[in-house]
Specification:
Layout: H1 3-10, E1 17-21, E2 25-29, E3 39-42, E4 47-49, E5 54-61, E6 68-76, E7 88-91, E8 119-122, E9 130-135, E10 150-158, E11 164-171, E12 175-182, E13 198-206, E14 212-216, E15 219-223, E16 227-235, E17 246-253, E18 260-265, E19 271-277, E20 283-291, E21 306-314, E22 318-323, E23 338-343, E24 377-384, E25 395-402
Length: 406
């Protein structure tokens, strides 16, 4: 963004049209656009390894959309003679970006500048403004033995609906980086003492050297033929996550001995995922997970950082029966026991009866009509069996019907 358009934006003018009125007097017509915040805050600085994209969040006051401010990052290189200036820049911390205006995660472009060569780039997606990176001296492009060369990058941001912007910063050198969010009062694309409001933080970069690796879980139990999955994190001696580390594993003993595999490279959190697949044989695998420092796909126990994990693959439950259970033998003779191993067969339990213990009423459902007084009558005996409890007596039902007329 040019200083002219930036100044107009500070005044709340989005577009300017020139019209001739009367004697050629120009008239400027504009509409309100971005606002200038009255307060700024930034997340606290921390420590990360060089090469990572480390996130910062700036919150404006009032917390609302379309407020603009600048961020300047500055880092000084080693004072060693001819030591190059740091390569610093802005980046997308989650690696995915987001649509313009998404709260807290606007789509920021990735900027990488090989300082001290002065350069600039316009951000993509409507969220990144003009970014400039330059060395502090047109002559001193590297350390001179007394002072180091400083790299500076500046970028303009516009807040999302909740008044925040999350962006990432990166560096290729260990050292301290100053991160300053500010309102560029004099529109010079550089942070000055008179630029208010402002907020700042310090980012500490350390060498991306892995000295440790740890995996979770350390012991995993899975069914035979299954997969055991581990999340492994690589760190520096100070416990800071290291990125871009090649992680591999090898099974040193157990049913899957000899199996090797890649866990990929560690992400921005220093993590990689290892998956060990069982061959269908139960047992315990001893697994070595290591950082393949020389990328030769082979574990070197003397030089490569490593850790140990265990995978237990359990088969189906079994029954064992041995005969004879008891025996008497003469001293000095051989006693033989035969054992048989079988799979456990699940048994189904019968559902509980829903019938109560109350005695049912004995209702006669005979198809014969009731007794009648017509004469002469014949009588017959009908015997019916019902499903009563064992102790219930046999029930006899008598029915009569009139005899047919002579």
């Amino acid at each position: 963004m040019t200083r002219t358009s930036k100044a107009l934006k500070r005044l709340g003018v989005a577009a300017v049209a020139i019209a001739t009125i009367g004697a050629g007097i120009p008239a400027f017509v504009g509409t309100a656009d971005a606002a200038v915040p009255t307060g700024l805050s930034i997340t606290a600085g921390d420590t990360a390894t060089v090469g990572t994209c480390n996130a910062f969040t700036v919150t404006t006051t009032p917390a609302q959309a379309s407020e603009t401010f600048d961020v300047q990052i500055t880092q000084t290189g080693p004072v060693t003679q001819n030591a190059p200036a740091p390569i610093i820049g802005f980046c997308d911390p989650d690696g995915a970006g987001a649509a313009a205006g998404t709260a807290g995660t606007p789509d920021q472009p990735t900027f990488t500048f090989n300082n001290p060569n002065a350069s600039s780039s316009t951000g993509a997606g409507g969220q990144g403004g003009t970014t400039t990176c330059q060395n502090n001296s047109a002559i001193n492009f590297a350390g001179n033995g007394t002072t180091g060369s400083t790299s500076t990058c500046n970028n303009e941001f516009t807040t999302a609906a909740n008044g925040t912007v999350t962006f990432g910063v990166s560096s290729n050198q260990a050292g301290s980086m100053q991160v300053a969010a500010y309102v560029d009062v004099n529109n010079d694309d550089f942070f000055n003492s008179g630029d208010t409001p402002s907020a700042s933080a310090t980012k500490t970069w350390v060498a991306n050297t892995t000295t440790g690796i740890a995996c979770t879980p350390t012991t995993d139990t899975e069914p035979v033929g299954g997969q055991s999955v581990y999340t492994c994190t690589t760190t520096t001696s100070g416990g800071v996550a290291t990125v871009g580390q090649v992680v591999r594993y090898t099974v040193t003993s157990g049913p899957d001995v000899g199996q090797v595999g890649s866990c990929g490279t560690t992400d921005n959190s220093g993590q990689a995922t290892c998956t060990v697949t069982n061959n269908g044989t139960p047992g315990n695998d001893a697994i070595t997970v290591y950082v393949d420092a020389n990328a030769d796909n082979t574990f070197n126990s003397a030089t490569e950082v490593n850790t140990q994990v265990t995978a237990k693959f359990i088969g189906a439950p079994r029954n064992i029966a041995c005969t004879p259970k008891e025996a008497t033998n003469t001293v000095g003779t051989t006693h033989t026991v035969s054992c048989t191993v079988t799979d456990v067969t699940p048994t189904r339990s019968r559902p509980a009866s829903t019938c109560s213990g109350a005695r049912r009423s004995r209702v006669d459902r005979s198809p014969f009509p009731a007794a009648t007084t017509r004469s002469p009558a014949r009588t017959r005996t009908v015997s019916r069996r019902r499903r009563w409890p064992a102790a219930a007596p046999r029930v006899t039902v008598r029915a009569t019907r009139p005899s047919r007329p002579a």
